[in-house]
Design goal:
Strand order of the largest sheet of chain B: 2-1-3-5-4
Strand content of chain A: under 5%
Number of strands of chain B: 25
Largest sheet of chain B: 5 strands, mixed
Oligomer: heterodimer
Radius of gyration of chain A: 13 Å
Radius of gyration of chain B: 24 Å
Helix content of chain A: 40-55%
Largest interface: A-B, 17 and 24 residues
Structural class of chain A: mainly alpha
């Protein structure tokens, strides 16, 4: 069932991303439910902020480069003002 | 670089630290050594000093911990978060915590403690994360860092010196002038200033270094724009306001002169046994400082310039040649006084204030008159 597997991987990536943005990019819990909203969402803006800060291509999407980066070991201090 | 909100910094330069506990991954000596080395990284480019205490509350308390460890910011098990630290201030502020679920190592087979400690201690001193991937303060751990050649990035140096300023001048020799001059101002010099002059110019492994006060421009022939750095970012022990510098390519060494002393550097490493006195090279006591030096690759000799005279030093025999000093203008027609000099493409380039002369040593004549910053693509 490759499609199901791929969907599970995407879900897990989105969860990881959301957690990353909450921990290091001050993504408030209030926007949690908006994580799948396409277009000009707070999440997309936070992804763009993260991609810009970390020197990634700014797409606003959870692409493979972004996923690779958020899986890397890092410092626990947030990247943006608390 | 950025600072924490409100820009907290230590209001004193003499800070204390305490290693509260140890990981079992490394010996105590290895942990102590990694922490000392990490603190030294910052001490070398600031006026800050760090003294270790063994009891009581230090400014920077360093500890290893698992999961929840009393600060409401729990660690997350192996991987991802390696450590965190708090901005300067009392109590928990200034403290650095390391996740003991990581495998701490002194090399990069696991998580290198020195690298993470240097980063976290940057936070303890007031630096926030940098967006420069080359910076130590970039938030991601870089396991490909060359530990043997580790150095702070210019961004890290700029950040920490923004908070604390540069280290005090070397007290090495009272004869070396230490008063700040106009050349040592805090403001970086403008590369396209038509009045720009240089203290010293040298090649280094195919690049050209232009020294000015506390700064150095690196110019690669492959890139149009020069890059400006603090000298201390590369060579913390090298003084500012150099008088002369030259590269002996056959020894992969740059010699840098200030007053009656000189230093040797190979790449980013200061060579042991320096500074030495210029009199060990054979200069008479009447020479108090040099103005410029050129290494002639083909002949393996070095010309030293001081006032209106020059000397020739045999780099193979390591002796000053007989028959010198001679008048500069007699053997280099058109050249009177030299601030800085280097050789490229078979020509000598002599700098004097904002002018530069291209000199053909075979034809023994000046072939071009240029602005001193002609190499900067202005």
């Amino acid at each position: 069932h490759p499609l199901n597997g791929a969907a599970r991987r995407e879900d897990s990536g989105m969860e990881l991303l959301q957690q990353y943005l909450e921990n290091y990019y001050d993504l408030g819990k209030i926007v949690k439910q908006l994580v799948r909203t396409p277009g000009d969402s707070p999440v997309e803006k936070k992804i763009q902020e993260m991609q810009k800060f970390l020197g990634l291509k700014v797409t606003g999407k959870l692409d493979s480069d972004t996923l690779d980066i958020i899986r890397k070991p890092r410092c626990g201090v947030p990247d943006v003002g608390q | 670089f950025t600072q924490f909100p409100g820009m907290p910094k230590w209001r004193k330069n003499d800070l204390t630290y305490r290693v509260v506990n140890y990981t079992q991954d490394l010996s105590r000596d290895e942990v102590d050594s990694a922490i000392e080395k990490a603190l030294k990284v910052w001490a070398e480019v600031t006026p800050l000093t760090f003294s270790r205490i063994y009891d009581g509350e230090a400014d920077i308390m360093i500890s290893f911990a698992f999961r929840e460890h009393g600060d409401y910011i729990p660690f997350d098990g192996p991987g991802n978060v390696l450590g965190h630290a708090y901005a300067p201030g009392p109590g928990i502020n200034g403290d650095a915590h390391f996740d003991d679920d990581e495998l701490w190592t002194k090399d990069t087979t696991g998580t290198n403690l020195f690298l993470v400690a240097a980063h976290e201690l940057g936070h303890s001193l007031g630096l926030f994360h940098s967006a420069d991937p080359k910076a130590l303060m970039y938030p991601l751990y870089n396991s490909f860092t060359d530990l043997a050649r580790f150095r702070l990035s210019q961004d890290d140096v700029n950040g920490i010196q923004f908070l604390y300023g540069p280290p005090p001048a070397s007290p090495a020799d009272p004869k070396v002038p230490t008063e700040p001059s106009h050349q040592e101002s805090e403001t970086p010099p403008a590369s396209c200033d038509p009045a720009l002059s240089f203290d010293a110019v040298s090649t280094l492994r195919g690049e050209i270094l232009f020294f000015k006060g506390r700064h150095v421009w690196r110019k690669s022939l492959r890139t149009a724009e020069p890059e400006l750095y603090l000298i201390s970012a590369f060579w913390p022990a090298l003084p500012s306001g150099l008088d002369a510098a030259y590269e002996v390519t056959s020894k992969d060494t740059v010699f840098a002169f200030k007053g009656n002393q000189f230093w040797a550097i190979r790449g980013l490493e200061m060579q042991a046994g320096f500074p030495k006195s210029i009199y060990t090279l054979g200069f008479p006591a009447t020479v108090k400082k040099l103005d410029a030096a050129i290494f002639v690759k083909e002949k393996k000799w070095t010309y030293f310039f001081a006032e209106d005279q020059y000397w020739r030093f045999d780099e193979k025999k390591q002796v000053m040649e007989a028959g010198f000093p001679r008048k500069i203008s007699e053997d280099f027609p058109g050249v009177e006084k030299v601030d800085a000099a280097f050789e490229a493409f078979g020509f000598f380039y002599f700098f004097n204030e904002s002018s530069q002369l291209e000199f053909d040593p075979n034809a023994k004549k000046v072939t071009h008159t240029l602005k001193s910053n002609s190499w900067f693509n202005c």
